[in-house]
Description:
Layout: H1 2-16, H2 22-31, H3 39-61, H4 69-88, H5 99-132, H6 139-170, H7 175-195, H8 198-203
Keywords: Membrane, Transmembrane, Transmembrane helix
Protein name: HupE/UreJ family protein
Transmembrane segments: 20-36, 43-65, 71-90, 110-128, 151-171, 178-195
Amino acid sequence: MDDFLIYLRLGFDHITDPSGYDHILFVIALCAVYTLQQWRQVLLLVTAFTVGHSITLALATLQLINYKTELIELLIPITILITAISNFFYQEPKSRLSSTTRQTNTSWRYGLALTFGLIHGMGFSNYLRSLLGREATIIKPLLAFNIGLEVGQLVIVSLVLALAYVVLDILRSSRLRWTLIISGIVAGMAISLILNNEYLAELI
Length: 204
């Protein structure tokens, strides 16, 4: 049980570590267009991301898939940039729209989160495999690490939605302005990560 808690803590620390903020930026970009009152939609969105990265985290850690680590490290900030830019064009479904129209307007974001989750899962696995060493079995550490990731992810989501509540509901700031500012900051940081990526420099 001690080993389980150790890997759970490692998963939590990995996604919340400010020095490795790429995954934090992605979660922020996912949540930027939502308010605290829309926590159910955010939960579904985060679940889609979880499903995606859980699949490739498991496959990559078990060495069932192979990929270039350098390529994944380049693709992760690209997913952040795409998600942030997509927020600029997001339109909140109006209350009078039919449920079918609402689903059409938002379902693409779930697909985006799921697809990009597959990429982030491979990024998580790089760190986990470096920790496993000569563990006799990796199933329990894999499960604990993944749970730790999710707990950390939910903490980030909670902080973003709480801040959105303060800005939008208490300070009465414009929701559009909030979305544009947060997404713009995330996009700028993602561009910086992309431009400073060594693999991109080699390709160019």
